[in-house]
Amino acid sequence: MTASDAENAGMTIFQHLANITDNAYSYGISAGEDVKSIAGIEKTGKYSLTVHMSEFDATSIYNMSFTIVPLHYYGDPALFNGVDSFGFVKGDLSGVRAKTTQPLGCGPYVFESYNNGVVTLKANEYYYTGKPVIDTILFQEATDSDYVPGIIAGTFDIAAPSISDATLLAIKDANSNKDLVGDTLTTYLVDYRGYGYIGINANLVNVGGDPASEASKNLRKGIMTVLSVYRETVINSYYGDRASVIQYPISNTSWAAPQPTDVGYQIAYSRDVNGNPIYNASMNDEQKYEAALQAAVGFFQAAGYTWDGSKFTAAPEGAKMVYEFLVPGSGEQDHPAYGIAVGASEALEKIGITLMVNDCTSTTWNNALEANTAELWCAAWQSTVDPDMYQVYHSTNADGKGTNSNHYQVKDADLDALIIAGRGSSDTDFRKATYKKAMEIIMDWGVELPTYQRKDCYVTSSKRIDNSTMPKDMTPYWGWAAEIDTLDVL
């Protein structure tokens, strides 16, 4: 699985590109009436333009992050007048296609070659801030397990390995001071632009065929209540201090993420079917596990399950006694949610509910998710810059429609209205409050359990990279390559 496939909402870029046919390149795509120009796009200068919108949309500015390419290379300056001719014969992109393997952009480095898994880039002497400091940069294909040993051996200078106890131990062992920053390796830990979660398909886990009913919500909240109580122990064991448990379905790196000091902030699935707190500050882990299980009994009873005093013996119409949880651990149990699923499965078995944990391949997991046949699953989103929730939660993307990225199958008019209201305002206070209400609806449906916010890791060679030229205070949106033009070597 490639990095771009690992955490995405719906169609990957490669799946999208696969839908572009040769005919689309050669003859263009007809969309009805012939349009010679777009009145809302106005050229205002040699290097500037203005885009006029018919209505406000907070996400629109991020849709403008297209790549600027030179007209003289990809088009024909003689065919450009900025009114009804823009450097191309309309509908014919064959010239662009012909240069696919010889790209020319305006970035700090110029593509030179690709051979034996190595991309060679040369400094662009015409870069707008001046020629980059390093003349040649090589990007080499490699497996994650080779990153840190490769830097130590001198094969690589910079890498972004997945964080694990073994990786951090290898970094510390390589430094004489036995720390993450030392004479051999320098480590940068940055919050990951996304979060891990557990999802439930409301179309497959419900009562009476009505995903939106209170009984269906209680069924799903019963399962989520038991899953939620194992998060702290399992995530701490898997990640240590490299991740933290989160309570709302949004990355903590977002300005819209609810904070513990906010009014109404709650721990995910910490109240019983009557709205009372399940836990108190004096409880130890075992007491919390038992309290969560008892709360789940209340939810299942409210969902219509038959209780004999010690176990459930029958499910209501449309519901089941057995549900499957897909974990893409490739049979090696190597996933942060695996321990959560197993802990919950063992607990639910005590009350007669079976949660089958299927430690499957990423292909099996992805196929089930895209086909909307996964009852329960775990994954991680890579969040966008803007906290807009349309793609993942709006009804138009459920039931295989739209982008098919609403795998929870949440179809809620109130939620849809909040999502549209949130993207229609520039007031961040209003948007944050609106999205919090939207997240509360999602949690009330019992379809998502936020699990963790982790960190990314960049490792450089202390002996070959001038770390004083690495970006200061890196963020999820400003990584090591953001200032690659000023990066220097020793």
Structural summary, described in words:
The chain is α+β, with helices and mostly antiparallel strands and 490 residues long. 28% of the residues lie in helices and 17% in strands. The protein is built from 15 helices and 15 strands. The strands form four sheets. Strands 6, 7, 8, 9, 12, 13, 14 and 15 form an eight-stranded mixed sheet that branches. Strand 12 (322-327), helix 11 and strand 13 form a beta-alpha-beta unit. The longest helix has 19 residues, at 285-303. The chain is globular.
Q: In short, what is this structure?
A:
With 490 residues, this protein is an alpha+beta fold. It contains 15 helices and 15 strands.
List keywords for this structure.
490 residues, alpha+beta, 8-stranded mixed beta sheet, 3-stranded antiparallel beta sheet, 15 strands
Helix-strand layout with pairing:
Layout lengths: L2 H4 L6 H6 L3 H6 L13 E5 L2 E4 L19 H4 L19 H5 L10 E7 L2 E6 L12 E5 L6 H7 L4 E2 L5 H10 L10 E7 L2 E7 L13 H15 L2 H9 L3 E2 L40 H19 L2 E2 L4 E3 L7 E6 L10 H12 L4 E6 L2 H9 L5 E7 L7 H4 L19 H11 L4 H18 L2 E14 L29
Parallel strand pairs: 12-13, 12-14
Antiparallel strand pairs: 1-2, 3-4, 4-5, 6-15, 7-15, 8-14, 8-15, 9-15, 10-11
Helix pairs in contact: 8-10, 8-11, 14-15
